[in-house]
Please model this.
Amino acid sequence: MNSSNYLCNRNRNPKQFKAMDQEDFDAIKKIKKENKQAFNPWSRKDDDELINLFFDGVPVGEMSIKLKRTKGAIRARIRKMELIHIKKKDPSKK
Model:
């Protein structure tokens, strides 16, 4: 099995990689057909824009349109970046 058969995340330990089967590839292909950005890594520019939109109080639906990501992807990235915790700790963040 070559390395392209592994679903990985930059922050994951290589031992945690999950071997993908044809069903996984087909599911990803279908999702990417509907949303070209799906499964693409987030760039620093995307992250910066998400941070600005989040602290400006932009709704998730609007963020998803601007960033061309699903609402689920936006919510997941907000959680991963711990933006909600930052907002709660520092009330000066809108």
Summary: Helices lie at 22-34, 44-55, 60-67, 71-80, 83-89. The chain has five helices and two strands. The chain has a mean pLDDT of 79. The CA atoms of residues 48 and 54 lie 10 Å apart.
